[in-house]
Target: Cytochrome b561
Amino acid sequence: MSSPALPGREAAAAGAGAAPPAAPRYSGGAIALHWLHALLVLALIGIGLAMGEMPKGAERSAAIALHKSLGLLALALLLLRLGWRLRHRPPVDNRLGALERKLAGLGHRALYLLLLLTPLAGYLSSSFTPYPMRVFGIVIPKAGWPDEGWNALFNALHTGCAWTLIGLIALHLGAVVLHALSGRSVLGRMLPGRGRR
Model:
C-alpha cells in the first residue's frame, strides 16, 4: 500500500518541471532607443573605419560630412536615452548575483561615458578647424576657432575613445553570449515585441 503524498513533496514535484522565473523586460521606449542607437553607432564605426582607407577627394569629404552629422545625431540620441533612463529605471534581473549585477552596472556606465565622450570629442575637434560645422547640410555654431593644436588633441581623444568603445561593445556582446550559454539569457529583456523570457 503506497504512503500518502506529502504536501511538501507535491509542491517540490510541481516546481521541478516549472519554467524558470521570467526575466523583467525593459520598457518599450528604452528598447526602441537602444536598438536605434546601436544601429547608429555601428554605422558610425563602419564609416569611420572606411574613411581611413579613402583617398582625399569628394567621396572622402562626403563620408566625413556624413560621419559628423550622424555623430551629433548619436549624441542627441544619447541625451534622450539618459533622460528616458532617469524617468524609467531599468528593471533589476534577480537571476544574476550581486557581483554580476555590479559588474553589469559598471559596464553600462562605461559604455554611456564613451558614447558621450566619443562624439563630443569629435565635435570639439571639428570646432577647431577653419571649416564650417554642418549637420546634414545645416550650419551650426562651433565651440572653437581654427587651431591645429586643439584640433589634433581632440582628434586623438576622439580616436582613442572610439577604439575603447569598440572594445567595450565587444565585451558587452561577449557577456550577452556567456549569459545565454549559462541558461540565463539577458537578450530577451531588450528584444522588441514580447521577446524571450
Q: What stands out?
A: Residues 63 and 79 are 24 Å apart (CA to CA). The domain at 26-89+97-182 is CATH 1.20.950 (Fumarate Reductase Cytochrome B subunit).
